[in-house]
Amino acid sequence: MIFESERFVMRPQSLRAHNDKLAAAAHLVIARLRPEDLGATKLNKILWAADCEYYRRHGKSLTGEEEYVRRDNGPCPLNIERVIDTLKRDGAIAESLQPIISYARREFTALKEPDIDQFEPEEVDILLTVALEFTRLTAKQASDDSHDDLWLATATNARMSVAAGSVRLVSPTPEVMEWAKGVFASDEHRKAN
């Protein structure tokens, strides 16, 4: 099954608000991680993971992005290139290409301190916690980590909903399994009598 979201149109004012929060989030992550720990792939995955985590807790995304685009390396914010270009043009960050074995990694360096006034403390905590988790991964590992069932079921370049991405299936604990066995056993006992 392939999930494709309908196109949505944002008014310029709404687009600006989303881009401002996304830009602030990207700038914060870039400012807090070493350039060698953060390429474009990891930045996109950090933003996706932070948005999904915040959505799980609050029913809305942290950056204001409700949809991402499914790319080969995982989900990407719809306007991330425009946001990166704006941050560079404003002198907030610099971008460089670093040769890696088979490609050139896009690395980012903060030139100014990010403005975190628009964030609640929990939002900063989620962004930085997720960012630190991703520093332990290679870009390929971060990319592979984002290739979940939603990503697999979404066509390349189609939209991926943050709401759908926030859903996590968890295995039942041993206590829950014991409870369920007891419920099923008592149901079977009732049916037999």
Description of the molecule:
This protein has one domain (12-168). 52% of the residues lie in helices and 13% in strands. It contains 8 helices and 5 strands; from the N terminus they run ααββαββαααβαα. It has helices at 12-32, 40-58, 80-89, 121-135, 139-145, 149-153, 162-165, 174-192; strands spanning 67-71, 74-77, 93-99, 104-110, 159-161. Helix 1 crosses helix 3 and helix 2 (40-58) packs across helix 4. Mean pLDDT is 86; it is low at 1-18.
Question: Which features does this protein show?
Answer:
single chain, 193 residues, alpha+beta, two-stranded antiparallel sheet
The biggest sheet amounts to: 3 strands, antiparallel
Output the structural class: alpha+beta
Q: So how many helices? A: 8
What is the CA-atom radius of gyration, in angstroms? 20 Å
Question: Which strand order does the major sheet show?
Answer: 2-1-5
Strand content: 5-15%
Low-confidence stretches: 1-18
What is the number of beta strands? Answer: 5
Assign a percent range to the helix content. 40-55%
Global mean pLDDT: 86
Q: Give the SSE string.
A: HHEEHEEHHHEHH
Distance between the termini: 44 Å
Explain the layout of strands and helices.
Blueprint lengths: L11 H21 L7 H19 L8 E5 L2 E4 L2 H10 L3 E7 L4 E7 L10 H15 L3 H7 L3 H5 L5 E3 H4 L8 H19 L1
Antiparallel strand pairs: 1-2, 1-5, 3-4
What does this entry show, briefly?
The chain is an alpha+beta fold and 193 residues long. The chain contains 8 helices and 5 strands, in the order ααββαββαααβαα.
